[in-house]
Amino acid sequence: QVQLVESGGDSVQAGGSLRLPCTVSGKTYSRLCMGWFRQAPGKEREGVAAIMPDGDSTYIADSVKGRFKISQNNPKNTLILEMNSLKLDDTAMYYCAARPGWCRFGLDGTINTEDAEYDYWGQGTQVTVSS
């Protein structure tokens, strides 16, 4: 059993930055794929970023590429989403998610960020970007 707790959500001005940590606890896996998702009001949940267990390969959605960065701190069992140059469209509830083993790839050759690929979810943290 894996427990995920994300935090760091806040209300920020467009162009600002936020850092969202996700702490991982519970069962220790040799490999744990981790990702970030978000869901804006009236929209479906979408994958934002994901990282391989070895931390070497990452996926960043086109909508946030160049602005967001995903990383992990293994000694602290923490996943980090760094968000810069925030836009109004970034307003959403952000969720940390994980699945045992390697991240799997989608048909486009990138790390799969479909909801069904991930077994464990945090409760979410709200990010609100204002003009």
Give a short synopsis of this structure.
This protein is mainly beta and 131 residues long.
Write a structural description:
This protein has 131 residues and is an all-beta fold. The strands form two sheets. Strands 2, 4, 5, 6, 9, 10 and 11 form a seven-stranded mixed beta sheet that branches. Strands 1-3-8-7 form a four-stranded antiparallel beta sheet, with no helix packed on it. The mean pLDDT is 93.
Topology diagram in text:
Layout: E1 2-6, E2 11-13, E3 18-26, E4 32-39, E5 46-51, E6 58-60, E7 68-73, E8 78-83, E9 92-100, E10 120-121, E11 125-130
Parallel strand pairs: 2-11
Antiparallel strand pairs: 1-3, 3-8, 4-5, 4-9, 5-6, 7-8, 9-10, 9-11
What series of H and E elements makes up the topology? EEEEEEEEEEE
Major sheet attributes: 7 strands, mixed
Low-confidence stretches: none
Shape: globular
Provide a count of the helices: 0
C-alpha Rg, in Å? Answer: 14 Å
Task: Give a count of the beta strands, DSSP E runs of length 2 or more.
Answer: 11
Q: Roughly what percent helix?
A: under 10%
What is the terminal-to-terminal distance? 41 Å
Q: Classify the beta-strand content into a percent band.
A: over 45%
Helices and strands: which structural class?
mainly beta
Roughly what is the average pLDDT, rounded to an integer?
93
